[in-house]
């Protein structure tokens, strides 16, 4: 499919396949369980990668449509779907134009994906479109550091990192992007850990949001001030990371 050619990153895909098992052991598996706990009904997962979430969906989930643009990762996800405890259909597609009608899903899941989508605003608008009114967005994403000097290092390193790591950006304020897209964040935890031996500890957000009718007032205020937000949770050391 031509439209997906810009998402083909075979070297990154092989590297992700190799490193994801280590990452799961270092804490990612536990975060995936929290991410998916309590979900039910029809779920769309965007940027499913090699399907590392699939084993963690609760039995109340009736079906998952897992969208993945990269050919190698999608092949691995198809194998993982066959081993999953619930029905999972893996489809080719990308976040900017999800292959689904409006209001199709009860919930949407993104994990370690909003760092990589070319346009967060567009991807989040698509997630909103395919969710039923009041539908839930579950997210687990690494984000920009709350410490100014770490954030500056991330700004400096991100262009090179992005080329090596499948388009990933280290310095995105994803919680604020979720709010700006018109979601109301209901739960937002911050976790700091290193997902790989070679990587420093990174700040992650883990939570859920609902598609609201309009962006909440706090979001509009933050936008007027022209700066990001620290989120609703995460007091303690993680919030300063
Ligand atoms: C770091 S991997 C994470 C995979 C998986 N979600 C996980 O939790 O292990 C990033 C994934 O996002 C996918 N991706 C990148 N850009 C995307 C886009 N625009 N739409 C959908 N998926 C995208 C990549 O192909 C890759 O599978």
UniProtKB/TrEMBL annotation:
Pfam families tied to this protein: Methyltransf_11
Claim: Protease is one of the keywords in the record: no
Residue segments, region Disordered: 208-241
Major enzyme class: transferase
Signal peptide positions (record): none
Biased composition (Gly residues): 229-241
Species name: Sphaerisporangium dianthi
Domain Methyltransferase type, residue spans: 44-138
PANTHER family: METHYLTRANSFERASE LIKE 7A, METHYLTRANSFERASE LIKE 7B
One of the GO BP terms on file: methylation
Gene Ontology molecular function terms on file: methyltransferase activity
UniProt entry tagged with the keyword Methyltransferase: yes
Protein name, per record: Class I SAM-dependent methyltransferase
Domain of life: Bacteria
InterPro entries assigned: Methyltransf_11, SAM-dependent_MTases_sf, Thiol_S-MT
């Amino acid at each position: 499919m031509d439209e997906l050619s810009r998402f083909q990153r075979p070297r990154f895909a092989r590297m992700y396949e190799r490193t994801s098992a280590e990452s799961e052991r270092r804490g990612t598996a536990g975060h995936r369980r929290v991410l998916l706990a309590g979900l039910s009904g029809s779920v769309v997962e965007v940027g499913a990668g090699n399907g590392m979430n699939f084993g963690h969906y609760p039995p109340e989930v009736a079906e998952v449509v897992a969208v993945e643009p990269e050919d190698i990762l999608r092949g691995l996800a198809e194998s993982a779907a066959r081993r999953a405890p619930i029905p999972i259909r893996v489809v080719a597609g990308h976040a900017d134009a999800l292959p689904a009608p409006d209001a199709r899903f009860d919930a949407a899941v993104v994990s370690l994906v909003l760092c990589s989508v070319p346009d967060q605003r567009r991807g989040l608008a698509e997630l909103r479109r395919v969710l039923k009114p009041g539908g839930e967005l579950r997210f687990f994403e690494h984000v920009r550091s709350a410490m100014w000097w770490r954030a500056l290092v991330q700004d400096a390193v991100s262009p090179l990192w992005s080329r090596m790591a499948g388009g990933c950006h280290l310095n995105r304020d994803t919680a604020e992007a979720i709010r700006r897209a018109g979601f109301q964040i209901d739960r937002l935890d911050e976790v700091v850990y290193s997902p790989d031996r070679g990587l420093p500890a990174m700040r992650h957000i883990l939570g859920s949001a609902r598609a609201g009718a309009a962006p909440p007032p706090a979001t509009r205020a933050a936008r007027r001030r022209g700066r990001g937000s620290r989120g609703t949770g995460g007091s303690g050391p993680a919030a300063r990371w």
